[in-house]
Write a structure and sequence with these properties.
Number of domains: 1
Radius of gyration: 28 Å
Number of helices: 4
Strand content: under 5%
Number of strands: 0
Order of helices and strands: HHHH
Shape: elongated
């Protein structure tokens, strides 16, 4: 039925994705799964705090790395050019 519907209305394919929500009905029927999902839901703010804290450190060290190593790894791959000022663009290295 759903595949016939998508022939005439391709936008209705989004409703197929909603079929995966049917698995959540097991949470209502099983007390053990209910405990697991409630625990995950209650721990979400703490997990979000940890992710935010780690992200701040990651951004801090990324900014530090960019400022420390800015321009240090820039090299010209054309052997005929001796200084960095004349090295404009990207040169193809030929294999000999």
């Amino acid at each position: 039925m759903a595949s016939i519907l998508t022939l005439f209305f391709p936008e209705a394919a989004i409703f197929r994705a909603l079929r995966s929500v049917r698995a959540l009905r097991m949470v209502v029927r099983s007390p053990q799964l209910k405990v697991v999902f409630i625990s995950l839901w209650r721990s979400f703010p703490a997990i979000a705090n940890v992710v935010l804290f780690i992200s701040l450190f990651w951004i801090m060290f990324a900014i530090l790395g960019v400022s420390l190593f800015a321009g240090k790894y820039g090299t010209c791959n054309d052997a005929n050019i001796m200084d960095q000022v004349n090295c404009i663009g990207r040169f193809n290295a030929t294999c000999t």
